[in-house]
Amino acid sequence: MLTRTVLRSRTPNLNRLLHSSSRISRQLFDPSTVERVSEDVDVCIVGAGPAGLSTAIRLKQLEQKLGKELRVVVLEKGAEVGSHTLSGAVIEPRALDELLPDWSLRDDHPLTQSATSSHMRFLTKSLSIPIPHPPQMSNQGNYIVSLSRFTAWLGNIAEEMGVEVYPGFAGAGVVYTDDGSVAGVRTNEVGLDRLGCMKESFEPGMEFRARVTLIAEGAHGSIAKELIQKFDLRRNSDPQTYGIGLKEVWRVDPTQYRPGEVVHTMGWPLDFRTYGGGWVYHMADGLVSLGLVIGLDYANPYLSPYKEFQRMKHHPYFAELLSGKSTRIAYGGRSLNEGGLQSVPQLYFPGGALVGCSAGFVNIAKIKGTHNAMKSGMLAAEAAAAALSQESSSGPADMSQYETALKDSWVWSDLNEVRNLRESFHTPLGIWGGIMYSGVDSLLLKGRTPWTFRNRARLTDAQHTQPAYRFRPIDYPPPQPPLSTDLLTSLTLTGTNHAEDQPVHLRVRKGGNENTALRKLHVQRNLSEYAGLLQRACPAGVYEYVEDETAADGWNGHKLVINSQNCIHCKLCDIKVPTQDITWTVPEGGGGPKYTIT
Question: Is 197 a catalytic residue?
Fold first, then answer.
């Protein structure tokens, strides 16, 4: 893995002393007085996922047309490229075919298991009923992969082409010019203790000043969130909506392994008021990916996504699949965009653009987004190259060409065809009407309608949460190993690790304020109105409301405890908390999960 020391050796103008730790032992960090190293680059990309790496690779492919070398830097908060990447995943190779036409000739490519069949099942508590699947869910020509391995493979190709990829460097903030346009990003400080004081290992974050800054953090990233708000990029689009996807990888008994089989489920264990469904993908090498996606617009604060997932595995269909000599080897979770075309914001801002899931290009009917994310990155690269070729331009890079190109591409038509399916569940049709409408639209209409369902009330997933008094607590069965386990046992399979003595990256913050009164109000409202939703909703056991009669920031004998070291960076808390006062920020670079086969 590249380290900050390695980075300094690769960039000669970083040879000045960053800090004399002996002079500042345990002083409170003041960002206004720190001297930061600043690097000038042509393009800075935040996030080494499929979108960010496709952007970088395409830029290097365009160097010859420009007639000059481009310095392209990719910052990645994970300890390694791919370690924070998680998805089902079945990949539609359309974008990959365009980006790397000879990919199948590479000996090291990870697309070794093609999808051989696609099925859909409706589950009751005890039955598994085959039902027709929409044509959009056909997987002919697709591949079942580990997205973390696929991403690591793209990262190797990018580096071979001359891209500077820096794992362990979290993009923590935006660098602005005097006129308010974007001039680059700042990485996180390293070596602060829990109180924000400088340890002996302290190093300030660096600035990467770029002519073009591209944000590819994934769903609900902290920098994208800041830029969308600052430049009002959602003024003409609906709020983004999300699902939480929980996943396990099992090495199944050979009698249950059917390589290339793709199965999607709907129905049980979710009730008819809750949007979601499950999947089973038979990967290469005897592995099976299985999981559950739940729409974060669910109303019942007693719902636990993790326990719903564990309960699902006790259905006879899953119990048989995981029987015999089956072993669970991985667990993970992440939020994914569900808003579709109506929720895509303006894609460009002065000096840069949003790509991939930072903008939100998941086709929820296909349950796929990697192909669209990669294509968006390629189009952003072409627009960035065009902007960089305008040597005489004195203002911020104009990336509006990227949005025009994307609307003319197959990404837009891919999303347009299914634009009404997810949103139909929020119309007066309700859940059952939404299912019926989605069937008719996907099979017959294929999006060829004069109407588009909109979220005119502009309700967010948090606002769909209803008070606890309207529901009964859900009586979940206790874990029954090895088929189901408690949450902390599952968490050990993520490889998650954060330095204990660092500032908590999950902040109780609202309107820029953080204080005892706000924290106390958080506890009061979330306990009295929503029965402590976060301690059930979080798929990593980060949040607890514990008894403490003496806490100044508590209420009614309880206080909030944030176990930030457990965080798997799914962003659910930031999205779903009804009081909208939890802000997810990046921890020290390299912290978090260490996914390898997810």
Answer: no
